[in-house]
Amino acid sequence: MSFSRWDFWIDRGGTFTDVIGRDPPGKLHARKLLSENPGAYRDAAVQGIRDHLGLKTGEAIPAGLVGEVRMGTTVATNALLERKGDRTLLVTTKGFRDALRIGYQARPDIFAKEIIKPEQLYQAVVEIDERVLADGVVEQAPDEAAIRTALQAQFDAGFRAVAIAFMHAYRYPAHEQVAARIAREIGFPQVSVSHEVSPLIKLVGRGDTTVVDAYLSPILGRYVAQVSDELDIARTGARLMFMMSSGGLTAAELFQGKDAILSGPAGGIVGMARTAGLAGHEKVIGFDMGGTSTDVSHYAGAFEREFETHVAGVRMRAPMMSIHTVAAGGGSVLAYDGARFRVGPESAGANPGPVSYRRGGPLAVTDANVMVGKVQPRYFPSVFGPAANETLDADAVRARFEEIAAQTQRKPEEVAEGFIQIAVQQMANAIKKISVARGYDVTRYTLQCFGGAGGQHACLVADALGMSRVFVHPLAGVLSAYGMGLADQTVIREQAVEMPLAAASLPLIAERLDALGSAAQAELERQQVSANPVQVRHNVHVRYEGTDSALVVPFGDMASIQAAFESAYRQRFAFLMVGKGLVVEAVSVEAMIAGDAPAEPRLPVHPHRKHPQRETVKMYSGSAWHDAALVVREDLHPGDVIPGPAIIAEKNTTTVVEPGWSARLTDLDHLVLDRVTARKVQYAAGTTVDPVLLEVFNNLF
User: Fold this and answer.
1) What is the pLDDT of residues 609-636, one digit of tens each?
2) Are 668 and 464 in contact (CB under 8 A)?
3) What pLDDT, on a 0 to 100 scale, did the predictor assign at position 180?
4) Which residues pair with 672 in a beta bridge?
5) CA atoms of 595 and 302, how far apart (whole Å)
6) From the CB of residue 433, how many other CB atoms can be counted at a distance below 10 Å?
7) 3-state secondary structure of 290
8) Are 15 and 288 in contact (CB under 8 A)?
9) Rg (Cα) of the chain, in Å, rounded?
């Protein structure tokens, strides 16, 4: 298949930015750049495009050369984590100024003596003397002059982002519409209104989501404008699209703050699902280890989404891929406090990065892998140092580990492996939360590892979970970017209904779904870029009467809805409530234009061929040094088998085949790692003080 222009799929992560370019003949090219490289380039995403096209830094992109640019970005996520969004004003019903601060009065740590509440994103509150009752009766109409005076005062005080959330506005939005109109007339550039952002019952969840949208949309808008400006879209004719947290693409001008929290990781799940399906792996656990964090996910034929989530201490009600994140990445900082080893949550980031990056950074997980020989600097990209042209610094890494070794009476390699064990346990615990804790038998799944650091730890994580197979795609190091190119274009719409699940309610529910579906389809057709037809899926959010946990199931007849709900409820909670009626809390539709299927040809297999080995290197694993085969991925052919211990070096990642494991290359050019010998299990800890086990138990309990 050939194309008329270059297309680019980009994942801008916290440490690295991955850029895949598809040239006009249809061949894929992948590059990794540091997300922050002051003095070298302004934006890593656009610089990656220039590198693919053979252009110099700052050189204008020729018109007609770039077709579509699909991006996922952590800009909004980082702004939320670091609390660097825009100053936000909350406008709400009189008497409810503290409703979002009080929240649901949940106590995650029931025994905590000091309750530390998360910092609120809004900095000021304006109460409006208005009230609509739950049945739609207007108890107090708003005074437009009073609203204008109050909002003008806050505008003069410097606020430019406003979040409007009134009681019962999800169903009766007229008063919010008045306040929003006045805010826009005054000149607020960012006005987020709850009945548009999250038209669902519950003031707290709806209000929180609206505040997040107002807080993040301006910073996201500035980044979109920056990329658009560097691409010079008006002149070049390029089309810019962004990945949403739900796993679907949307036009750049429609990209909102509430939809951007999991923008990058969502691309990884799409890439994981599409490539696993092609390879015949029906059930996979996604293990996406990047530089800053590790994202884990579950896939068994359908994308799992959550509609109410907590991210960085903030509640949100917006469709997101079900992803669990832990602060254990290649850049996670290693520390010894005199009693135990610590991994993360701080990250060395891209600048200064780990010690080995030659910029004076702290010890990190990547350094531990350099110390034990699992990362070989000679086979790693030379993009480090002040001029971004040097290899990893192994000598500096050894010197730093020797300092800790002197304090603990251990060898430097033992110290490094101890830190790796702790990181592996953190990642394995994260996988248990999205699999074992939800009733899935993880031993029946394939562990699909991706991200720049995933392959270095995949066998160890699989061993920690009792899994025996690992799948590594040839684009594993940049799979989140690859997922951008395979993603569907989607529009998701939700609406609260609050009706009992009964035969009399079904026609009304169907009517709401049809209206939402038409609106979503029209929105998608306005931004359509693909010739593929629009598909619309109808779902209902069902819960037991008197409970708070709604599960999303496909819409159909009474029997099918009830059966799907009971199956999902039993899977999640292991029991059913007898005698309880069912309530349809909300309806949602997903209008979708299917993305491209992965174009990966099958290659001839040559079994029993001796695999090409560049050299033998020393690798420390399982408390011993091993002679490991150093294999370059590009030297392999389908049918090659690489017994462990071995290191498979690639342009964008490194895959470690641990002792007891074996790797083979399939006819799709995929690596499949299998455990070939029984795993040794340590049933008891020793009696000596161990700073590694101390931290492992600290994480477990």
Assistant:
1) 666 788 898 999 888 899 999 999 888 8
2) no
3) 95
4) 471, 664
5) 15
6) 13
7) coil
8) no
9) 26
